[in-house]
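Thread: sanity check for a docking pose with zinc ion

Original post by kr_44:
Hi all, I'm comparing my docking run against an independent structure prediction. Below are the sequence and the ligand SMILES. Could someone generate the full complex and paste the structure tokens? I mainly care about where the ligand ends up relative to the chain.
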Amino acid sequence: MADGQPVDAAATHGSHVQASQADTPRYCVGCGYNLHALPRGGCPECGRAFDPADPQSTSATRVAPYLRVAGWLTAFCWGYPLLFSVVFYGNWLIAWAVLGHRPVLYIDDPASISVANNVFNYLCIAAIVLLPVVLFAGLFLSTLYAILRKWSIPLIVSQCIGYIWWWMLAIALLRGDPIGVMAWFMD
Ligand SMILES: [Zn+2]
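Reply from moderator J.T.:
Ran it for you. Here is the predicted complex with zinc ion included:
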């Protein structure tokens, strides 16, 4: 027992050092995957190389702050067509509620129905002005985001095609204007 003690002490010391390193949570810089207690190598989620001994190769936070910001901006651009629709259809629904009947083209002027409609009119104009900016910024941002997250090339390309497709669909639906909301605003 006495012979084994120094060995035990060394083993205890070694495991103590390992434990203190393992207790500090570290995350993948690329995807935020929890690398807790994993040996040096590639991230199981995205394959990005890391070394637990090199703090630069891992992140203390689940997702790097700049990545989170890029993610939110990208999500905003993807969601913009929905936001755009909410503003226009919201304006139209408020007008309907205030008037007590469906807004009539050329007769019910959106600007003179209610204070709420006035506010929504400004939101609608802002939404139109911002639309081309958000459309192109979103294409750039979502590509940048995908590159930062170390997505594969086919996935990056698919995302770009998906983004363009989604916007074209949204614009076609808004231009198609099935219940005359856009026509009412534009008249
Ligand atoms: Zn990863």
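The longest strand covers residues 27-28. Hope that helps with the comparison, let us know if your pose agrees.
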